[in-house]
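ok here's Membrane protein:
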Amino acid sequence: MGELGFFVIALFVFAAVTVAKGVRIVAQGEEWVVERLGKYHTTLLPGLNVIIPYLDQVRYKLVTKDIILDVQEQEVITRDNAVILTNAIAFIKITDPVKAVYGVTDFSEAIRNMIMTTLRSIIGEMNLDEALSNRDAIKARLRESIADEAIDWGLTVKSVEIQDIKPSESMQRAMEAQASAERERKATVTRAEGTKQSTILNAEAQLQAARLQAEAQVTLATASAEAIKRVAVALGSDDAPVRYLLGEKYIQTLGSLATSENAKTVVLPADLQDALRGMFGRPRV
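and the structure:
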């Protein structure tokens, strides 16, 4: 093989390399940024593309599908000085590859840092209870705050989700202690209130019972007085029925004492016959 042969082979190799470097096939879901002599020249879209070898260079290969950014957990201090832990996840999409690669050094890290900074700012304006119960509001404000900056970087923030938002371990211990103390306080108040109500109800019941007993005694005394008055009117000057009634009552009382469960001994008067005889009005024989 002579010099001509080597030249042809070298020319063939050069042509093959040139074609290989000039033809670019971009996959669906990607866009490539091409620079010519160090300056931005064009953006290659999905499909077959041809560039000038040795002058043009594919500088960046970007994914135009949705990108998932995981924002790591961080400590955030609320307005009432409570420390909480929170993290987030963002879904972004490259809408302008030129701005994405030339607008900021690392757009993913930039968006991630912006989310963390904005999240601290938003939660720092809230109290602990507000921060723990307003996840949707935080998410909306977060997305709104970073949307403009993202557009300047050729990005669209499709969604930002707050994954976790919870008190720190020390804060959880303090909250648990506070909750325990509050529960104990409520229990003490409830017990005291129950004792108070019980005492009041007991006193009211005793008062009501005393009133009813007094009324009953008055009614009984009135009825007794009226009965005595009527008996006295009915008897006139004859007291024999009265003695009979007293004797009968006396005997009934002795019978009650004898049948009582607590009565072990019943003492009868020695002159029982004389007493009964006196009650019934019979003179001693």
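+1. The chain has a mean pLDDT of 85.
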